[in-house]
Fold:
Amino acid sequence: MSTTPGHLSPKFIPAEKSEITSVSKLDGFKFSFVSYNILSQAFVKGAALFPHSPGPCLKWKARSQAILTVLKSFKADFLCLQEMDEYDSFYKSNIESGGYSSIYVQRSGKKHDGCGIFYKQDSAELVIEEKIDYNDLVPSIQDDTASVDKEENLPADGKKKLASKCDVNLQNSRADRGDLNDPRVRLKRDCVGVMAAFRLKDPCHFIIVTNTHICWDPELTDVKLVQAKYLLSRLAQFKLQVSDKFNCSPSVVVAGDFNSLPGDQVYQYLISGSSVMGTLPESSDDVPIPLCSVYASTRGEPHFTNCTPVFTGTIDYILFSPSGDIKPVSYLELPEPGASDVQGGLPNYYHPSDHLPIGAEFEIVQ
Structure:
């Protein structure tokens, strides 16, 4: 009999704050939402980035099945996945067999992973979608663009943490990054996202789901913020388009790996709709949307959503529009520091990715 530990399936925990849970079950319809950076298999090959992980955990056959099992255990109405490669060859058919449909956008350039949204066919109907390619920012940069702030934009502690997270990545990819003093090269990071509007079937309510993966490089904190500004600008335009086309006021949920710690400039911008930084290139039609963090508004941001020996911190978030139309009534549990299932870092036999899934149940208030 095998003594190898098995994967864990987190549960949804009711929110404790009274202002969140005061709405009666009879007053609203619930839908569940999970976001998960499942770790691209391309990053696992060779095990150079994960020498701490047991070898069997990194093999595609075992890891893909473990990820699939975890995803299916949530029975979520919406799944937002980042770093998803093997979409056509594995994930699409295997996840959709559980009653889902999906949309997917692959990263630009020669990257093989991307972002996908899976949604339960019996819960939601896709009405319109739009893809985001952050490389579209490049043409807006002119030859005389002023130099942009770099590492100064991140607090010293956050800079140190994110740099340690990506030490190996930096060593392996410096030659591929080009001349970062050229703002056009600096902005071309091949990052993507996807926005989709859904009509929930019971009750009839429109919701916009956005999934994205922001630049990972700790030396490009300015680029991360520019991408965040572009994301909210595009999202505002998309929301207006959906509102006009369907004569509705859609709720908004944004999920992703933002590669940014709580409290830094990207995080503060996303939850405030404003930035104190005036030296960055901006989209001319930047119209931010007010957003709140699910975990911050219920239990507080997690201690970590990414866990390896060189970095442990929170960089994944689920954000929602605080309009009163939807409220988070539960959140997906996460391990505490020192928990046995994260000892030594991820991936391991308990968790098939270096990230942890995050999630929430929302209630529609009408």
Q: What stands out?
A: The chain is about 25% helix and 25% strand. Confidence is low (pLDDT under 50) at residues 18-26, 143-154, 274-287. Residues 305 and 314 are 5 Å apart (CA to CA). The longest helix spans residues 221-246.
